[in-house]
Write a structure and sequence with these properties.
By secondary structure, the protein is an alpha+beta fold. It is 13% helix and 30% strand. The chain has two domains: 157 residues, no CATH class; 128 residues, Cyclophilin-like (Cyclophilin). The radius of gyration is 20 Å and the shape is elongated.
């Protein structure tokens, strides 16, 4: 059990996502950085779909109400446990009454806090993930007490473990993409602009979409597109030519033409880009290479 005592920014309960309900207009949601989410649970031998706390763009302080083990992953944070400082991508023992603080630093947006056994929260449409725009779950706040399931192993065996990320987190990431269905709606110059330009993340980003800023992308076809299905990673180009990348809370349909789709293996890199700081470039890849890279980084998790 944990009690939240201080909180800034956005903190929600997330798991691997709400699958199978897109046809009803319900976004998948789930973790923004799926790799950090899986690593947090893996460090504690939790089931792969266990719920965690996702913290973004702020700081969090909580107190343990009983002895437990916590893991914290992600980018852009440091962890203080009682009188010690711990690096991210580790697990550590927390005694009842101890206070743990996550302090915001540079280098990323999202941190993931897992507890031995996983957090126990309501299951809605087969998922514990929060979707604030749809009123599914709610943002965490100071005073909330979070319950957890029993750990899968002795606590002492789960503590003092670490995970070396296979994702090359960076402030200058190169994001792999696969051309999207409307790639031919853009001029050859527009395609060159997309792949040769450097983009930054707009401060107006959120869990639904990452608005990018850079050289506008020229269209060859300017007619309206009939709305069609979208998924996390879809890169839409609206009238101003500035890319918008759909993220975890992406709507299930959209009407802007899509130039490309971010690969699953590159989504964590993009998720952790900082507004106005990170320099983002895109690189075309193939489905086969994208699948191979995904399998490589998933191997430690057995998924």
């Amino acid at each position: 059990m944990l009690e939240i005592t201080e909180l800034t920014g956005i903190a929600t309960i997330q798991d691997s996502g709400r699958r199978g309900f897109n046809k009803f207009g319900v976004p998948t949601s789930g973790a923004m950085d799926w790799y950090a989410y899986q690593a947090a649970n893996s460090l504690l031998n939790n089931p792969t779909n266990s719920a965690v706390i996702e913290l973004g763009l702020g700081e969090l302080t909580f107190r343990a109400l009983r002895n437990t083990v916590i893991s914290v992953t992600g980018a852009g944070y440091e962890v203080e446990n009682y009188i010690w400082t711990f690096p991210l991508w580790t697990s550590f023992y927390v005694r009842a009454g101890w206070t743990v603080r996550l302090k915001k630093t540079s280098g990323g947006n999202w941190a993931y806090i897992a507890i031995a056994g996983g957090f126990d929260s309501p299951v809605i449409m087969n998922s514990r993930s929060t979707y604030l725009r749809g009123g599914i779950g709610s943002a965490l706040k100071a005073g909330d007490v979070l319950q957890s399931f029993p750990p899968t192993a002795d606590l002492l065996k789960l503590a003092a473990r670490d995970h070396v990320p296979l994702i090359p987190y960076s402030q200058t990431p190169t994001i792999d993409v696969i051309p999207a269905p409307q790639a031919d709606w853009f001029t050859p110059e527009g395609i060159r602009t997309f792949y040769e330009s450097e983009y930054t993340l707009s401060p107006s980003f959120d869990r639904m979409g990452y608005r990018l800023q850079g050289s506008p992308i020229e269209k060859a076809i300017t007619k309206e597109l009939i709305s069609e299905g979208m998924t996390m990673g879809s890169i839409q180009i609206p009238a101003d030519g500035q890319p918008i990348v759909m993220m975890a809370d992406a709507p299930t349909t959209g009407g802007y033409p899509k130039i490309a789709n971010v690969t699953r293996a590159s989504l964590p890199l993009l998720a952790q880009c900082e507004a106005g700081v990170s320099k983002i470039r895109f690189r075309e890849t193939t489905v086969e290479l994208a699948q191979e890279k995904y399998r490589t980084i998933c191997h430690p998790f057995g998924i």
